[in-house]
Amino acid sequence: MSAAQIELSGIERVFHLGDSEVHALRNLNLSITAGEYVAVMGPSGSGKSTLLNLLGLLDRPNTGIYRLEGRDVTTLSPDEQAQVRSQRIGFVFQSFHLVPRLSAAENIALPMVLAGLAPAQREVRVQQALKDYGLEHRANHRPDELSGGQRQRVAIARATIMQPAMILADEPTGNLDRATGEEVIHLLEGLNTRGVTLIMVTHDSALGARAHRQLMMEDGALQHDQCHTTPLAAATTPCAAPT
């Protein structure tokens, strides 16, 4: 898997609620080096999820430029952005966002179906993912027949099945007990050690401290950009210089 280089310049995101304006992101300038492990932290309403949605091309800024791997993706059409999402970005959510009527194997295969990959190729990749994430015995079970940890493992397998450059994780352990959450974080960190850029939104300071870099958001602005070296982070790419 290759990793994503991110450059945000002058990003503003404003929401209109009735007669009022909410500045969800304010003049955000940020560089994230390919292969970094970044925690995005801050109180509710600070802009964390808005930032993640923009990075994932699920939303567009009102002003500013977002370059992903050197390409200005803010100017792309919706179809072009969808193609970039499919090929370069994986998502892991707190609530899993699995399709209830599909089995674990079918949920994992879904991005490949949408991308038009051949059935034989999908089958090979799904079987390998089921093995990699310890889900072989749950392949034909629907989400309501899986534990929380198993559902999140399915979600991670689905997020990585297209071999993305970047994983965006929004409170990935929020609905899990501590032991299961640790297991999930180790899976995500394992992807990062293989070179995938990992950006995680979390309210958990202990979880955020595991990342090589912490971005502290407040009122839509980046208040602190802190790097540190831990035994885990030492193996990752050094922090990008704040901009």
Automatic annotation (TrEMBL):
GO terms for molecular function: ATP binding. It comes from the Bacteria. InterPro entries: AAA+_ATPase (IPR003593), ABC_transporter-like_ATP-bd (IPR003439), ABC_transporter-like_CS (IPR017871), ABC_transpr_LolD-like (IPR015854), MacB-like_ATP-bd (IPR017911), P-loop_NTPase (IPR027417). Residues 6-243 form the ABC transporter domain. It holds the Pfam family ABC_tran. The keyword ATP-binding applies. Keywords: ATP-binding, Cell membrane, Membrane, Nucleotide-binding, Transport. This is ABC transporter ATP-binding protein. It comes from Rhodoferax lithotrophicus.
